[in-house]
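We examine the record.
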Amino acid sequence: MELNNPLLDWKGFGLWLDENKGNMSNRELARRVGLSPAQIGNILAGTSKTTTENIILLAQHIGKSQQEAFMVLGAEKPSMSKEDVEIISASRSVPPGRRAEFVQLVKAAASVYQAAGV
């Protein structure tokens, strides 16, 4: 998905996110999504773009659908399954220095399933 499109409404997305995060602090939202509080502040202010994965995680952690998040942004919904999002979420709990190893484990597991015809 092309998120550098100048027609995307990052300011509107930030306002939507701020309105829907309820009483959750920026620090708590940042912790849950795996971003810094400063990054969350910039997203809320509409001064910073973020990734497809982060948009999905942000929506998930404020109890909204990814479809709604992408609609507010003015973008089409990406083709990511719930399982894709879960893998991304799980990777956020892995220390940054070990994420490459985590990716290799996921790829190896996928190869085993593919070879088994699952």
About this structure: Residues 10-73 form a domain with the 434 Repressor (Amino-terminal Domain) fold (CATH 1.10.260.40). The mean pLDDT is 85. DSSP finds seven helices and no strands in the chain. Helices lie at 10-20, 26-33, 37-45, 52-61, 66-73, 82-92, 99-116.
